[in-house]
Peroxidase (Lactuca virosa), 335 residues
Amino acid sequence: MVNNKTVAFVVAIGFIFLNLSGHCYGALQFGFYNGKCRGSDVEDIVRKTVLSKFLVDRTITPALLRMQFHDCFVNGCDASILLDGTNSEKTAPPNLSVRGYDVIDAVKTAVERVCPDVVSCADIIVMATRDAVSLSGGGRYNVQTGRRDGRVSLAKDAQILPSPSSSVSSAIKAFATKGLTATDMIYLLGGHTIGIAHCSFFQDRLYNFQNTGKPDPTMDLALLTSLRRTCPQNATVDGKANLDQNSFSSAVVDKSFYTQIMLRRGVLQIDQALASDGLSKSTVAAIAGSSDFTTKFGQAMVKLGGTQVLTGTQGEIRKSCRAVNSQTLMALVNG
């Protein structure tokens, strides 16, 4: 039984860790685990484990991309999204559809087998996402490692995640609070080149956009007709649609997404707005006409992965990605 004084102390310590985490970017490095794992190559272990999962389920790529974004955007890349608990980030409404936890568990088991108590869950998310992107045609980008795992995970903190119906200006402001530029945001939303969205995230665009009783006038009419078939107005099942409406490219990490939104074939409101808003449309057009999307996307993912990280002696290296090491600290997960 944890008494109130102990919980108060732990909460205070937790907030100290949160406050410190925003000032520690420099300790990440390429090859952080070299020589730290009894001669084993940590990144190779991660790659092989992700490959085994990918061969069974190729949708792990959009799942992991979403997981990394949702983890890093909420109090930094500290694997707080992985923690189980009655009031942890995992239970927040924006995170209820996050998948890929089994992939992270499998990687953690594999690295712990040869290298116990060394590799953080926060690094595993970043490395596994990179490898899944590479397997889906996105090119392999080098990632920095050396993150530590956070001890705090609260559902209320996930309220800051941008909504699919956010305006471009509000999204830019939200990303700026994480040290990410408007260009970073536009490239990171390029992660929508792969994966799906459930009808509930865009149904208003099909039938009652901004309470007008009409569809979103910016949506291509052929796409509107198609999506209405997929998402009937009174459906009892939440259907889904590819975020990249190029059927030849919806499972590949490439620049096709930008071409589609320029054709008014964006599924989510924020995606379509990128192609028409004066703050973003020129960058969208430049990316659509470029030949270096995968390189620039990788660079944006690396920058996202450096958001508010814990390093050095901050945080911990979890034994299980789903739980903090000290049971006393579970008060910061269960609320």
Q: What stands out?
A: Confidence is low (pLDDT under 50) at residues 1-25. Strands lie at 196-198, 240-242. Residues 83 and 163 are 23 Å apart (CA to CA).
